[in-house]
Design a protein that fits this description.
Elements: E1 2-4, E2 10-12, E3 19-20, H1 27-36, H2 42-56, E4 64-65, H3 69-73, E5 86-87, E6 146-147, H4 148-151, E7 175-185, E8 204-211, E9 224-229, E10 234-241, E11 245-251, E12 256-259, H5 267-289, H6 295-303, H7 315-320, H8 322-334, H9 347-356, H10 390-406, H11 437-441, H12 461-471, H13 474-478, E13 502-504, E14 508-512, E15 515-518, E16 520-523, E17 527-530, E18 534-537, E19 547-557, E20 563-572, E21 587-598, E22 602-610, H14 615-620, E23 640-648, E24 653-655, H15 671-681, E25 684-687, E26 698-701, E27 704-707, E28 711-714, E29 773-781, E30 790-791, E31 796-802, H16 812-817, E32 822-825, E33 829-833, E34 837-845, H17 853-858, E35 863-871, E36 876-878, H18 882-885, H19 902-908, E37 918-923, H20 929-937, E38 940-946, H21 950-959, E39 964-966, H22 970-978, E40 983-984, E41 987-988, E42 997-1000, H23 1015-1022, H24 1025-1036, E43 1040-1046, H25 1052-1068, E44 1071-1078, E45 1089-1096, E46 1121-1123, E47 1126-1128, H26 1145-1149, E48 1163-1165, H27 1173-1179, E49 1188-1190, H28 1199-1207, H29 1277-1281, H30 1328-1335, H31 1347-1356, ...
Parallel strand pairs: 6-9, 7-12, 21-23, 22-23, 32-35, 34-35, 37-38, 37-42, 38-39, 42-43
Antiparallel strand pairs: 1-2, 3-4, 5-10, 7-8, 8-9, 10-11, 11-12, 13-16, 14-15, 15-19, 16-17, 18-19, 18-22, 19-20, 20-21, 23-24, 25-26, 25-30, 26-27, 28-29, 28-34, 29-31, 31-33, 35-36, 40-41, 43-45, 44-45, 46-47, 48-49
């Protein structure tokens, strides 16, 4: 070894080449040094000449400069670092030197925000608490231990003899191994390497047995007992042994040490570091496989992973070490390419950051940036580049090209505030590098400035995470009161009047009421305006483009002498929901709006053509590459326009213009006026024939013809409910504090987090409205003077009240156990205003039904039946009177038996029409929820399905054995079809003219935020699965098209995803509409808002969205959609109530047998009969498997999680805030500890004066990582971040028996996205079958794979009842179109 001293002298020992910079000598240290050298070993004697001089100039913490330190300071030190190393910044400060802050562009942390280092309860170096039972002290060095610099002179540790002619710089620095080691600080506490002491310039030392690098024995044999190894300058991870066990190293001024086995005392501390590294590795690997993984997916990954020592990692450990994990992911991102999406923005990491409350990048330069590993092959779908048809490709390419050329200003102004940097993280403290692609594009570096992106080194991760979180918070904003608006369009357009000379051209046509009509007029001497022509009208506001209108009529007012025209308005394509995606300025849409205008408002005569598609030719044009079919014409003349659709502005519907009737009832000959007049007349009642007995036989109102003997739905609350005492009975509500011990008086020390609870209970039906009341009309009365504009409030209906089971004295339990369609007759007569009538319904006595009740109620809408009468005075049920038994029966035979057949029954009542099921292709089919619902509606039969996930595809096969299921990338299948292939893997591909219904829900990962597209996301969306799905539609041109997606689909990228999707459908020639539906309104026990785009081919009828069948919580029924400055509404009228009661958690799962946590038996017996209508429907009367219950299995929770679940009360609204702060012995033998509250909090103190904060951030300071607590019954992370996240309401939440599920997700976890996943009473999470019931899957429906696969299949599916409701609407349209083609008008009973 050659030691070069400062004075130039040399000494030869082992191979170390260091240059020691002297520090002021200390006489006391010199004296101590001399006395300590009296008893020396032979090895020490050999090294004595070189060591003595070094000790004279050395203190503990000697400042050492290596020969390659200069290169390292210049950022060129990657050459001497082992491949893949991730090193901490080298600390070179002396022990006595003032710590130097890193150069961070002048930034210095605020003194106010620094952690208080004078906490008397903590060590000032390692920050461990003195009262921590896990605090361990340095036990002293091993026996006969020697100092590090002496140990390094031992020849047994050297790889070289000292006679080598040449030696590289890497070989000049010893690399050794250290076993049976421990690491301690100056006060003598055993501490972590990653605790932050090294970064804070505190001194850490190690002890143990030093071994040569080739010795793999972790024992002490062959090792040199060494003390005071250090100070430690840095630590790093060199790699993984066998891919799992991490290889950790640290460096001192003299050598690098690879760590082997820790000492028995230090082993628990080392295990924690290995656990952190294992967590980081697992998280990064998961995100490489699936960058859109959710937090629940990470928990599943951890549950299925084992550490090298054979133990599992819990969620508690993940949250405890979240800062370390996020820091590793952040630096992993920083080492990636500039255009790669950062893993830190994945849903999984954002949830982890929210739960743990960390700030990214605070610890500057904790390690060198490592090179990214090559991504592994993804386990999930690995989608190829989108296969697009020419039309779809043209729409996207042309739009994106225009947007990139014109910049983002074309998107219009934004109301979103500009986000600022956090100012704390490492990235915010950097300066522009001037080298990355983003810097080169900046104007100050000579670029164009088009990308408007910050430097790659200055991308603030905290800002990016916050923006991504804001994108996901839309649903919370939507939970507001339902907005009920009129969908009628009738408004005036302010226009400018000109001083024109006007002359009539041609003779008078007619004179009516003083108005003289003409066929044409000459305006301003050169413009000939004529009936049937088109003109432009100048708006009063100069910023608005010219209005365009069709001239319907021309006349002169005989009284005023002014000339008028009647205008039928058009709307420019850019003023529709398409917005800026409508690239043809000549494209118009017709709207249902007209107006009388002065003829002097005309500016110019224009030509507007109607492009009527030929349905037969249109079908063959699918996928054509003829540019004339889809490219915009270059002629942008301001006098030539065209239109194809009738547009409804309030609902965003594009429809084929209706055929104009031959007869028009108004003098102007305007069909639009007739329609608007009919709309205005809907609010006016028209009485029928007067009866001799008094009253009238019928009344027409709101397009309903109500007759005596009809049953009607009435507004909720139409009947005042009174009890036996005559007092008004109010609706029962659940009292969340009804149980003893959980009211206003509770032990605040035992329940320290209960103060966070509010009266708002997630998943409660307290605000859910009642279903419609039902009445049987026995008389229609009006006592005023009959005229044409009768007010509905003036007309009185005499109705007999029809009781629902829940309205009787049996109460809510009877409503739960009875059929939804079952009611009770009564002779109780009420006078009811006509305005309280909602709609007509069917009411039949059960004796008049000659088919099974189940078939009768499901064969048509709104069918109610009764078999008994209810006497409210006596609170008894009686046989219905004779006249009631005849309701629904045309005649009786002997014995009172009905003579009519089932076919006659179908003709008497509104029924779902019978059609031939459409041949259906289901893309992104999943396990088949959408297809199942469409099959139930009778509108479809799935012949083909495409699903790339093998387990989901197999589940689809199990339930649809006759369908051809392709487990392939949909882009490959479409490419094969376009290329003319007929089959794939032995299955026939869909023929081009064989698909009649196309349905699917394409994923939207990669562009699902609310902010504008950036350049990378343009490319992502242009090659997305939505584009592929639209290309399927363009190629096959089905009769009907369904696109299902998450509710936020309509808002992604400032509505641009919605606009482009609608634009493609319009370009194809489809009629289309969009809307949001709540699955809870159609018979499932969960809130699940989903966006649907429906499209119909030219000549078909575009379906309406189905009216709700079940009432649901009002907070989940806000279905309007904001697109830019406009708001669009659903066509549904029943927004505040519905025919049937809500479906509850009790409906979904109360009949299922009890199972323990982690139940795995896939087939068991029901153990009881169904209790409610929903349960009977789910089990199925004729199902072969009605006696066997499948997939009633649940996830196995960790012991700590299971204990928390057991302490959650079984009362409404219970969640983590009801957990007690106590010690519990877990089933694995571990005992939890109490959560300590050590800081003030903005919520004040408890009534006993106890503090409520668990971290220094509660006092407005930065988070102290050592404030973290683990193994507590109350998860430390939830009170830590609760004030920022609505107190984490719902996490570890129990479902409420009379409430509803949160949106069923793919992986139920108590601290996941939907935390209310606990059984109402049992100590477990919900099972696969319970989740399937919440989605409306019948019990006979099969799922495939392990429990995680099955949960994913259920969570990703469309609820079949919702799909059935949509299918019934399509079924009506198919029947109507087919009837027109056959020239057979539908019967009155078929709808």
């Amino acid at each position: 070894m050659k030691i070069e001293l400062v004075d130039g002298s040399e000494a030869t020992c082992n191979l170390v080449n260091v240059k020691v910079e002297p520090v002021a000598s200390n006489p006391e240290q010199e004296s101590s040094s001399e006395s300590s050298s009296r008893n020396t070993t032979p090895v020490e004697e050999e090294a004595k000449p070189a060591v003595e001089q070094a000790k004279k100039t050395k203190t503990r913490g000697v400042k050492v400069r290596y020969a390659f330190d200069d290169a390292a300071a210049l950022g060129e030190d990657d050459d001497f670092l082992p491949s893949g190393n991730s090193k901490k910044k080298r600390r070179t400060a002396s022990r006595h030197a003032k710590p130097e802050l890193p150069d961070i562009g002048g930034y210095r942390p605020s003194k106010k925000k620094r952690i208080n280092r004078k906490d008397p309860n903590r060590c000032h170096v390692c920050r461990q608490r003195f009262d921590d039972p896990n605090l361990k002290y340095f036990p002293g060095p091993p026996a006969d231990a020697i100092e590090e610099i002496i140990a390094l002179t031992d020849p047994s540790l050297s790889l070289f003899t000292g006679e080598e002619e040449y030696m590289s710089e890497l070989d000049q620095r010893p690399i050794l191994k250290l076993t049976q080691f421990g690491i301690y600080d100056e006060p003598g506490h055993l501490c972590h390497l990653d605790g932050g002491a090294i970064e804070a310039n505190h001194l850490l030392y190690a002890y143990g047995y030093v071994k040569p690098v080739w010795n793999d024995n972790p024992g002490t044999d062959g090792g040199i007992a060494t003390k005071e190894i250090g100070p430690i300058n840095e630590w790093f991870i060199s790699g993984f042994d066998g891919g799992e066990k991490s290889i950790m190293c640290f460096a001192t001024s003299y050598a690098d040490y690879y760590l082997m086995a820790a000492s028995e005392l230090y082993e628990p501390i080392m295990n924690e570091l290995e656990e952190k590294i294992f967590l980081s590795k697992t998280v990064i690997e998961l995100l490489i496989e699936d960058e859109n993984a959710e937090y629940e997916d990470l928990l599943t990954k951890l549950q299925n992973s084992l550490m090298p020592n054979g133990t599992r990692v819990s969620e508690d450990s993940l949250l405890r070490y979240a800062e370390f994990v996020c820091d590793r992911v952040y630096h992993f991102d920083a080492a990636g390419a500039e255009d790669e999406p950062p893993l830190i923005l994945s849903p999984c990491m954002r949830t982890l950051i929210q739960l743990s409350g960390i700030t990214l990048g605070k610890r500057r330069a904790t390690r060198k940036l490592e090179k990214r590993r090559q991504p592994k092959a993804k386990k999930g779908p690995n989608w190829t580049k989108a296969t697009t048809t020419p039309l779809v490709g043209y729409v996207f390419e042309s739009f994106f090209r225009d947007q990139m050329d014109q910049g983002e200003d074309k998107f219009g102004p934004t109301s979103a505030p500009r986000r600022t940097r956090c100012g704390i993280c490492e990235a915010c403290q950097q300066t522009d590098c001037g080298k990355c692609n983003f810097c080169r594009d900046m104007v100050k570096f000579g670029g164009s400035g088009r990308s408007k992106q910050s430097c790659a080194l200055r991308k603030c991760p905290n800002r990016a995470v916050q923006v991504a979180d804001d994108d996901d918070e839309l649903d919370a904003v939507l939970d507001s009161e339902i907005e009920v608006v009129s969908l009628d369009v009738d408004h005036k357009k302010p226009v400018k009047r000109h001083a024109y000379d006007i002359e009539w051209d041609g003779p008078e046509l007619k004179v009516v009421d003083g108005l003289t009509f003409y066929s044409a007029a000459i305006v301003n001497g050169d413009m000939r305006v004529f009936s049937g022509g088109h003109v432009t009208i100048e708006p009063d506001d100069p910023s608005i483009p010219m209005y365009i209108a069709e001239v319907v009529a021309l006349w002169e007012d005989g009284k005023s002498g002014e000339q008028f025209l009647h205008a039928r308005w058009f709307c420019r394509g850019t003023d529709t929901v398409l917005g800026e995606t409508c690239d043809d300025p000549r494209e118009l849409v017709l709207i249902e709006d007209c107006e009388d205008l002065l003829l002097s408002a005309v500016v110019k005569v224009v030509n507007v053509k109607y492009k009527q598609p030929d349905p037969i030719k249109w079908k063959t044009e699918g996928g054509s590459d003829d540019p004339a079919l889809f490219q915009t014409e270059d002629d942008h003349s301001d006098t030539t326009f065209w239109y194809r659709y009738l547009y409804h502005g309030r609902t965003g519907r594009f429809e084929d213009p209706p055929e104009c009737p031959d007869v028009v009832s108004n003098n102007k000959g305007c069909h639009c006026c007739d329609r608007l007049d009919r709309i205005r007349q809907r609010d006016c009642a028209k009485l029928g024939n007067k009866l001799d007995s008094g009253g009238f036989d019928s009344v027409a109102w709101h397009e309903m013809d109500i007759k005596v003997g009809d049953a009607v739905f009435l507004e909720p609350g139409a009947y005042v409910m009174r009890g036996p005492d005559g007092l008004v009975v109010k609706k029962e509500k659940i009292d969340p504090e009804e149980e003893e011990g959980f009211g206003d008086d509770y032990d605040e020390e035992y329940y320290p987090e209960k103060y966070r609870k509010t009266d708002n209970i997630k998943g409660s039906n307290n605000d859910t409205p009642d279903p419609f009341c039902i009445g049987y009309v026995v008389g229609i009365v009006y006592n005023g003077i009959i005229h044409n504009n009768l007010n509905a409030r003036e007309v009185c209906l005499k109705v007999k009240r029809i009781y629902r089971p829940a309205d009787t004295h049996l109460g809510r339990d009877a409503g739960f156990r009875s059929d939804w369609n079952l009611v009770y007759w009564s002779d109780e007569i009420h006078n009811m205003e006509l305005s309280k009538v909602v709609d007509k319904c069917v009411l039949v006595c059960s004796t008049a039904i000659d088919e099974p009740i189940e078939e009768f109620v499901r064969s048509g809408p709104n069918r109610m039946y009764f078999n008994k009468a209810y006497n409210p005075a006596e609170r008894e049920f009686e046989p219905p009177p004779v006249e009631a038994e005849r309701i629904g029966s045309s005649s009786k035979g002997k014995g009172g038996k009905s003579l009519k057949s089932a076919k006659t029954t179908q003709l008497l009542y509104p029924s779902y029409p019978k059609i031939e099921p459409l041949k259906t292709l289901d893309i992104f089919a999943g396990c088949g929820g959408l297809s199942e619902g469409l099959h139930q509606s009778g509108v479809a039969k799935t012949y083909w399905a495409i699903e790339s996930e093998p387990t989901a595809a197999q589940a689809f096969r199990l339930n649809n054995p006759d369908a051809a299921v392709f487990t392939d990338d949909c882009n490959i299948i479409l490419k094969m079809a376009i290329d003319g292939q007929l089959e794939h893997n032995g299955q026939l591909l869909p023929p081009k003219d064989g698909v009649e219904l196309l349905c699917g829900g394409p994923p939207c990962q990669g562009f699902s935020g609310m902010n504008r597209f950036n350049s990378r996301q343009y490319s992502s969306f242009r090659n997305s699965l939505i584009v592929s799905y639209l290309s399927y539609c363009d190629y096959y041109r089905p009769r009907f098209f369904i696109l299902e997606n998450v509710r936020n689909f309509v808002s992604f990228k400032r509505n641009m995803v919605l606009k482009l999707t609608m634009r493609c459908l319009v370009r194809m020639g489809y009629q289309c509409t969009f809307g949001v539906l709540q699955a809870g309104n159609y018979g499932v026990s969960q809130t699940r808002r989903r966006a649907f785009i429906l499209a119909a081919a030219p000549g078909e009828k575009l379906p309406l969205y189905p009216e709700p069948t079940h009432v649901f919580s009002r907070r989940g029924c806000q279905l309007s959609v904001a697109v830019g400055r406009d708001k669009f509404y659903s066509n549904c009228r029943w927004l505040l109530s519905a025919p049937y009661r809500t479906v509850t958690v009790r409906d979904a799962m109360s009949d299922l047998p009890e199972i323990p946590n982690g139940a795995k038996q896939e087939e068991i017996s029901y153990g009881g009969d169904p209790q409610s209508h929903f349960q009977r429907w789910m089990r199925g009367v004729d199902s072969e498997s009605s006696g066997v219950l499948r997939d009633h299995i649940c996830k196995d929770m960790a012991p700590l999680v299971e204990a928390r679940i057991a302490f959650i009360p079984s009362k409404p609204g219970s969640d983590w805030r009801d957990l007690p702060n106590t010690e519990v012995r877990l089933k694995d033998g571990v005992t939890t500890v109490k959560l300590r509250y050590t800081h003030e909090d903005k919520n004040g103190r408890s009534s006993s004066g106890a503090m409520r904060g668990v971290c220094s951030c509660a006092e407005g300071r930065q988070c102290d990582p050592l404030d973290k607590q683990h193994n507590t019954l109350i998860p430390w992370c939830l009170p830590h971040t609760g004030n920022r996240h609505n107190h984490w309401a719902g996490l570890y939440g129990r479902l409420e028996w009379d409430g509803f599920f949160s949106t069923t997700i793919t992986n139920p976890e108590p601290m996941g996205k939907q935390g209310r996943v606990l059984h109402p009473e049992q100590h477990r999470v919900v099972s696969v079958r319970e989740c399937a019931r919440s989605q409306g899957f019948p019990d006979s429906y099969r799922f495939f794979g392990n429990i995680t696969d099955k949960h994913r299949q259920v969570g990703n599916a469309v609820p079949p009842p919702l799909a059935r409701a949509i299918g019934l609407e399509i079924r009506k349209c198919v029947f109507e179109t087919d009837s027109k083609k056959k020239k057979e008008p539908p019967t009155v009973a078929e709808i």
